[in-house]
Specification:
alpha/beta; 6-stranded mixed beta sheet; single chain; disordered N terminus; Rossmann fold
């Protein structure tokens, strides 16, 4: 996994992030940490599917961009362990694996910006991090006042100088001095999402300054960060099959697909599936988001990953609900969206069997011949009945279409309809229990 076969230096730094895209600010932070703490090596750890940033570029693209960004940078390497892990990305899991690899005496340093420190209490098992490594913080002006009280107290309690920290394997916050770099991945993505012809000289210069040339060439060659409205939508059936395949990869249970045409004006399918645990629902959502992005689809949002009891993946035309068994049984989404179930996948076309050898004709009894003639005479009547039904079908479809236009919920509220309906269901159940 990752680079575990490489010998581990005694003072090793790690810089995690989405690197979406990797820019000069990331390189400057790594250089400052290496210089301040005497790190022999800094490993860049691209996250697979971070829960706090669900709308990230596919991991394969981010990995390639990062490799290009680090070309020629002595002491900087890519560590692929989180991308190769078929699960959600948590820093504490990565550090736990690293500590097992290097042993208890090697010094490990996780590098982060002060904006990440401000959100540290939202990280999974954040208070365990210092038992595994040091946390090196690069401060931006005024951000110390933005720390939550619990984080501020924890930081003050465990703060140390670089000399004190590097004499131990883990356990301290240490500050990093660095020149501020006015570069934002968000701003770069906004510029990259626009056609090059619409960018002015200053905007073109910002891209050239913020991204290494090979990274910028890769982004343009693969049309990354273009706005969703400029990209083609995936075929509904193809997207449905892709989702079901992705869920089956991670062994989701009881996958159900429902047609919501006429019930919603924004999505056409609802898919509900069960994960055996909170961790499995997170893994299902992560794997699903990655597969959709790799296929050229768009992930609008991933919600509920903090607890994992009910994770909602919004894929535009299809909304996927991933739930642990107790939550699925209690909220009963099938009662809300289950009016029109559809097969999870279309059945595969039947293979044509090889033609059978003609055998000598058998003599047919007179009674059977007479029966076949009578059946043949009755066939036109049945065909006529089928034609009548076929003619009536379009009229029914038109009626349904009109109804859907008038009864579909407003776009501003439709995304919340599943949750609101579920809450109504809960309220009904509560009254029944009382």
């Amino acid at each position: 996994m990752g680079l575990s076969a490489t010998p581990i230096p005694t003072a090793l730094g790690f810089l995690g992030g989405t690197f979406d895209p990797p820019h000069v600010g990331h390189l400057a932070l790594a250089r400052a940490a290496r210089a301040a703490l005497g790190l022999i090596q800094v490993r860049f750890v691209p996250t697979a599917q971070p829960w706090q940033k669900p709308q990230v570029t596919a991991a394969t693209h981010r990995l390639h961009m990062l490799e290009l960004a680090l070309e020629g940078c002595d002491g900087f390497v890519v560590d692929r362990r989180e991308i190769e892990r078929a699960d959600a990305s948590y820093t504490v899991d990565t550090l736990t694996a690293l500590r097992k690899e290097v042993g208890p005496t090697a010094t490990l340093v996780w590098i982060l910006g002060s904006d990440q420190l401000a959100r540290l209490n939202t990280w999974h098992q954040w208070e365990k991090l210092l038992t595994l490594a040091h946390l090196a913080v690069a401060w931006r002006g005024g951000q110390s006042s933005q720390l939550a009280p619990t984080v501020r107290a924890y930081y003050a309690q465990h703060r140390a100088t670089a000399t004190q920290a590097m004499s131990q394997a883990h356990g301290h916050f240490v500050d990093i001095a660095m020149q501020p770099v006015d570069m934002s991945a968000t701003a770069l993505r906004a510029l990259l999402g626009r056609p090059s012809a619409t960018l002015g000289p200053q905007e073109q210069a910002l891209l050239a300054q913020g991204l290494r040339p090979k990274v910028l060439d890769y982004i343009r060659a693969h049309a990354l960060y273009h706005s969703e409205r400029n990209s083609p939508r995936m075929d509904l059936k193809a997207l449905q099959h892709l989702i079901v395949d992705a869920l089956e990869d991670i062994k989701a249970q009881d996958i159900k697909v429902y047609d919501t045409l006429g019930q919603s004006s924004e999505f056409d399918r609802v898919i509900v599936a069960t994960g055996n645990s909170n961790r499995q629902t997170r893994a299902l959502a992560w794997h699903l988001a990655q597969k959709v992005k790799e296929a050229g689809g768009h992930v609008n949002s991933v919600e509920g990953g903090d607890t994992g009891e009910w994770v909602l993946v919004d894929l535009g035309d299809i909304v996927v609900h991933l739930m642990v068994p107790a939550v699925r049984a209690y909220y009963a989404l099938e009662e809300i969206w289950g009016a029109k179930p559809v097969p999870t996948k279309e059945s595969a076309p039947k293979k044509k069997s090889a033609p059978k050898k003609k055998s000598a004709p058998k003599k047919t009894p007179t009674k059977k011949v007479a029966a076949k003639k009578k059946a043949a005479k009755k066939t036109p009547a049945k065909k006529a009945a089928r034609k009548t039904v076929a003619k009536k079908t379009p009229a029914k479809k038109v009626g349904k279409t009109k109804a859907s236009k008038t009864s579909a919920p407003a776009k501003s509220t439709v995304r919340k309809s599943a949750t609101q309906s579920a809450k109504k269901t809960v309220a009904k159940k509560s009254r029944t229990k009382k």
